[in-house]
């Protein structure tokens, strides 16, 4: 059985009629949802969807649905903390802790580099935006969403500009034997490919010559250097 309660309140001046409708069980359970909370969840879904669309477009591990759910979940927890007695700080802190576990799950390390750091940062930022909508700062949440999207879209162009600048890299090389002429041949080869080469260390390991260089140059020349080193039969390994 359902009980329908309609409350009427008159205010003067001016005369206004305000109707409050609440649907309750006979047991007294309240199933009403505040308008402010509904708006917060809708804004959270919109903000998460905007960021998630960009992630999905670039085929990242945390895509459209994931970012929306992270943003919405943070908003829900924040709303719950507002309605709880003295639980605001504890719930907010646990949101940050939980998001840290999710972010760690998308970070992978291979032999060359660490991948997923940007995706983890986006997850962290999306949770912060969800918490912002949960406390009612909808304009700020939308602004932060625009800033985040702008950073994600501009990062490719900025990285291209940085790639055109001089970069430095430390490289360790092991030769097939201890013949010092191999080292001199390598230095002369790399010096003619637009790279600046500085020898830092020379050593010997199991009758094999080893050397550490600091190489400076544009990114395209550094990539070509890796191909050159891989094609040289005198070199056993490099990193």
Biggest beta sheet attributes? 4 strands, antiparallel
Low-pLDDT runs of 5+ residues are 1-27
Q: Which class do the helix and strand fractions yield?
A: alpha+beta
How many helix segments?
Answer: 7
List keywords for this structure.
alpha+beta, 239 residues, single chain, elongated
Kindly describe this structure:
- There is one protein chain.
- The protein is α+β, with helices and mostly antiparallel strands and 239 residues long.
- The protein has 2 domains: 35-163, no CATH class; 167-238, Alpha-Beta Plaits, CATH 3.30.70.2690.
- Helix content is 54%, strand content 24%.
- It has helices at 35-57, 64-83, 88-104, 117-134, 138-163, 181-191, 219-231, and strands at 2-11, 16-25, 108-109, 114-115, 167-175, 196-205, 208-217, 235-238.
- The strands form 3 sheets. Strands 6-7-5-8 form a 4-stranded antiparallel β-sheet.
- Strand 1 (2-11) and strand 2 (16-25) form a beta hairpin.
- It is elongated, with a radius of gyration of 30 Å.
- Residues 1-27 have low confidence and may be disordered.
What's the gist of this structure?
By secondary structure, the chain is α+β, with helices and mostly antiparallel strands. The protein is 54% helix and 24% strand. It has a 4-stranded antiparallel sheet.
């Amino acid at each position: 059985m359902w009980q329908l309660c309609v409350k009427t309140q008159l205010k003067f001046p001016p005369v206004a009629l305000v109707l409050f409708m609440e649907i309750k069980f006979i047991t007294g359970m309240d199933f009403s949802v505040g308008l402010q909370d509904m708006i917060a969840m809708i804004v959270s879904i919109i903000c998460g969807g905007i960021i998630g669309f960009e992630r999905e477009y670039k085929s990242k591990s945390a895509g459209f649905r994931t970012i929306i759910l992270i943003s919405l979940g943070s908003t829900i927890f924040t709303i719950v903390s507002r309605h709880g007695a003295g639980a605001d700080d504890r719930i907010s802190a646990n949101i940050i802790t939980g998001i840290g576990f999710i972010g760690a799950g998308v970070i992978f390390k291979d032999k060359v580099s660490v991948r997923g750091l940007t995706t983890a940062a986006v997850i962290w930022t999306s949770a912060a935006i969800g918490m912002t909508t949960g406390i009612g700062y909808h304009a700020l949440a939308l602004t932060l969403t625009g800033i985040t999207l702008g950073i994600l879209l501009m990062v490719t162009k900025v990285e291209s500009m940085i790639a055109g600048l001089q970069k430095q890299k430390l490289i360790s090389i092991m030769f097939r034997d201890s013949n010092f002429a191999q080292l001199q041949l390598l230095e002369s080869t790399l010096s003619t490919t637009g790279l600046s080469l500085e020898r830092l260390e020379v050593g010997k390991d199991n009758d094999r010559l080893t050397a550490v260089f600091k190489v400076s140059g544009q990114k395209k020349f550094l990539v070509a250097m890796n191909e050159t080193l891989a094609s040289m039969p005198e070199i056993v390994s490099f990193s």
